[in-house]
Amino acid sequence: MRLSSFYLPTLKETPKEAEIVSHRLMLRAGMVRQMAAGIYSWLPLGLRVLRKVEAIVREEQDRAGCQEMLMPTLQPAELWQRSGRYDDYGPEMLRITDRHGRGLVYGPTNEEMLTDIIASTLRSYRDLPKLLYHIQWKFRDEVRPRFGVMRGREFLMKDCYSFDLDAQAARHSYNKMFVAYLKTFRRMGIDAIPMEAETGPIGGDLSHEFIVLADTGESGVFWDADFKPMELEGIDYDDPEKLDAVVRGAMQFYARTEDRHDPAAFEAQVPESRRRQGRGIEVGQVFTFGTKYSEPLGAKVIGPEGEEITVEMGSYGIGVSRLVGAIIEASHDQDGIIWPDAVAPFDLALINLRAGDADCDAACEDIYAKLLAAGVDVLYDDRDGRPGVKFADADLVGLPWRLVIGPRGLKEGKVELKRRDGSVDENVTLDQAVARLTDAAGG
Ligand code: P5A
To answer: Smallest Cα–Cα separation from 29: which of 8, 3, 5, 50?
Structure first.
């Protein structure tokens, strides 16, 4: 993509309304624009990141044996009256009346809707288990939407729902999702700690939030500094014992959100030197809640002995749009974003230091074509502008690699290859640059 034609409305000024760094950087880098409180448009640069995050979430859901579907954003109010949540959900739920006077809600979550689908389609215990998910916009009329896409009113969520025959099978589904979440967040280059959490309006008795530690996070959290990231390679989702061991391994460390915090247990389990208290961003939450929805909505199957069995359920959410902000909170410096490779909007910023100079233009055009052909996603700064502006924009946008081509280096056949995180800073030949970048892009 040529920067001269790419729609990238960057801002020089720091927007006043943005209280935290990820929100400031997303606005300044031209990723999003606010349309109303907590409601955003995603501009091309932001959308590229959102789509990458979404793709990783989707791949890991599929690997864990979940099947993707798509439910609508608008739901009949009647479904929520049947589950009893129509009144319980309160003013957070946006209620709409259509031209025929029928009640609709803009879905804040989909337990009712999918349970209703299952109730009217599954007949036999042989149809279970089922793990179904979708990635769809949700609406929650938050009292105080803030921090940009972190606490939006309209936001993109991946929500998965499990349907099992008994509590043990439901626990296996919960464990599958727990491990899939650890893998998902790790692939995005962030550490998310699973913490015991309250179940809130979703309900049930067992729940974990996946927390990225950050001072700007909205959740107060307590954890054991010895918490170790788990080994996740080669885990077979069909091996219940192995999965259970991973989940138990994670749960043996004290890690809880403040609603669940138990000071006495914290002191008993964790030596003082390892006790940590701080703040974090909740990027996902998993729940298991038995028959809370299947009972009132009639999701039953016929068991092996011909008896009726109400299915056991769980639900599992990831804040897809929130993750974009959370990743920036976890990875930036004073000059801008530092994208982890897996979610970067492009792989490389190619900077032509003297656009209009015949040699610089020729070298840039040549390497741009070669890199694109090798599968490297390049944002080529071909604008006619000062080097300082180009460097500042490249730092702000934060692509993992930067290749600078200028008249002086070119005379010696050299270009400058850098990593945004500072781990590489070398003068190399054009051919070496192509080889290195092709390698890094997995080509
Ligand atoms: C689980 C899936 C649920 O709604 N039902 C379906 C369950 N869980 S949850 O914890 O309430 O939400 C799941 C994740 O969505 C993100 N999230 C938000 N992101 C941005 N703005 C918001 N206002 C917002 N509310 C929730 C969080 O990442 C949460 O973990």
So the answer is: 8
